[in-house]
From TrEMBL:
Transmembrane segments annotated in the record for this chain: 6-28
Lineage, top ranks: Bacteria, Pseudomonadati, Pseudomonadota, Gammaproteobacteria, Alteromonadales
Full protein name: Sel1 repeat family protein
UniProt entry tagged with the keyword Transmembrane helix: yes
Taxonomic source organism: Thalassotalea mangrovi
SUPFAM superfamilies to which the protein is assigned, alphabetical: HCP-like (SSF81901)
Protein keywords: Membrane, Transmembrane, Transmembrane helix
Pfam families named among the record's database cross-references: Sel1 (PF08238)
Gene3D superfamilies recorded: Tetratricopeptide repeat domain (1.25.40.10)
């Protein structure tokens, strides 16, 4: 969307103001959008605070993935845990490792505390192959 606005604004100068505003909005709300996706995913995954709502794990998974793409470390860690444990997705140690590494890059401290070191990853991966 931003690329289209930039392309149009080259030929229509007044559109440039809208383009700049849109790009700034997307940049400054990136974290809040990631937080919102994560909160919505948690709600769909657990059924809400009182567990009286609908549970939709597929929708939750996609919302966790969106939050992870936007840089939400807890969402990346949660996806890694799902792949590691085979919870609601096929067990895939390489995907788990990828999401755990992404979580580490996004500075989620629990990665270092709760996950395993590289040697244990390889041992676990060999168990399932």
């Amino acid at each position: 969307m931003a690329i289209l606005l930039i392309a149009i604004s080259i030929f229509v100068p007044p559109v440039w103001y809208v383009t700049v505003a849109y790009i700034l909005y997307r940049l400054f709300t990136r974290k809040s959008r990631a937080d919102k996706y994560y909160e919505d995913a948690q709600t769909w995954f657990t059924g809400g605070e009182l567990s009286t709502g609908d549970v939709n794990v597929n929708k939750a998974f996609h919302l966790f993935a969106k939050a992870s793409e936007l840089g939400h470390a807890k969402a990346s860690y949660f996806l890694g845990s799902m792949y590691r444990d085979g919870a609601y997705v096929p067990q895939n140690m390489s995907m788990a490792e990828m999401y755990f590494e992404l979580s580490k890059e996004q500075c989620f401290a629990s990665y270092n505390e709760m996950f395993m070191n590289e040697r244990e990853i390889k041992v676990r991966a060999n168990q399932y192959t």
